[in-house]
Amino acid sequence: MDDPIVLTAQKSHKLGNNMTGNPKRPLSPHLSVWKWGPAMTASIVHRVTGNGLATVGAMLLVGWLVAAASGQESYDWYMGWATWWPGKVVAVGITWFFFQHLFGGIRHFVLDTGAGYELKTNNFWAKMVWAASIGCTILVWLIIFWKAL
Amino acid sequence: MGSGTRIGRVRGLGSAKHGAQHWLQQRLTAVGNIVLILWLIFSFLSLPALSHGAVTTWLSAPLVAVPMMLMIVSIFWHLKLGMQVMLEDYVHDEGLKLLSLVALNFYAIGGAALGLFAIAKIAFAGAPA
């Protein structure tokens, strides 16, 4: 443990987050100096929608299939809940979660190639993901309500 | 862990060499989900009715049952990979992390099995009226 790098790290750890122990040395990155932006929102919303779909979405999908396989009575019971107004709210929510996660995922495909990290470009496409997901959700539910008329 | 030298410590804490595979599988299943779930949405919108009879007749066709089964596999594979990353990021206690990853694997494999069985039952045996 007499490694000079380890010793320096241990020493600086005791002194705080300043590597040299010199309080005048500038700190980087400035973790406390930042502003909430569209790209950060897109990042956490991608995770929230993904985990929402993975739990509620996947369970409702499998539940629908199991209800259909179990017979008329259980299927009608399932569809009764699904078409009651809170069920419709959940269905609209899952539709939006799906499209938000889909377009957010496509944004990540592009970011994976190393493209689109410039501040304005990144924020622009983060906002476009919202526009596309809300637009597609409205379109799908307009078709559903139009068909139901 | 290594022998106590710096390179030994790096080796002990380094890559398990499965990161690239995880990353690639997450993206391949993402493409699968895009194609198959969009197909499901278009199918829902174009089905004349969502009654039990209409849905089970539709589900028993080979070109519906097979994509539906592939969709279940793709969805549960993708959600297992995605939730694994989420748990690894947020659950710091080693014991609780292991427990939650075991639970996630049971959920992913169990959920997929249930979905596949339901589709197979409708396709092969038909659903009781």
UniProtKB/TrEMBL annotation, chain B:
Involved pathway(s): Carbohydrate metabolism; tricarboxylic acid cycle
Cofactor or coenzyme needed: heme
Cellular compartments annotated: Membrane
CDD domains: SQR_TypeC_SdhD_like
GO cellular component term, pick one: membrane
One Pfam family named in its UniProt record: Sdh_cyt
Topology relative to the membrane: Multi-pass membrane protein
Transmembrane intervals: 30-51, 57-77, 98-124
Keywords of this entry: Electron transport, Heme, Iron, Membrane, Metal-binding, Transmembrane, Transmembrane helix, Transport, Tricarboxylic acid cycle
GO biological process, one term: tricarboxylic acid cycle
Function in brief: Membrane-anchoring subunit of succinate dehydrogenase (SDH).
Name of the molecule in the record: Succinate dehydrogenase hydrophobic membrane anchor subunit
